[in-house]
Amino acid sequence: MIIISNQLFLKIQCLSLDFLLRVCLNMDQWLNACVAIERAITIKAAIHFDKKKSKQIAKIVIVILLIFIVSTNIYDSIYRRLVDEENEDDKRLWCIALYPYNLQLFNSMIHIFHFLAPFAINLISTIILITKISRQQSNVHPNQTYVEHL
Fold it and tell me: Which of 11, 17, 26, 34 has the most CB atoms less than 10 A away?
């Protein structure tokens, strides 16, 4: 196993990789939530759904989401440090983030927000999808009740 000991490379990797991972993971969750919203709108709008307008809105939303997610995670790179740890036979470098108390609280709130908001959006749009499709099916098959379709 090759051990990388170039301090500059490790510092750049420490500052950028964790930040990029966090941004990409949050972006994935938010984009999934946007897809869920679009599905709910598609079902709700039915034949009046405008595909061209949807594509335009999607492009704008992606840019806004990227700016929002980067701006809520930019502080992470500022507080990341490389720490040397030496044991009796080992030398290790750790990439750690040391936040002040207020920023630690903010970090926790941001993590919770970036998890719960897309989760809630997905949950609500799933409920909308199920109820709307059940109503449509009950209109198509009037011999079955609405509850049976649910």
Answer: 26
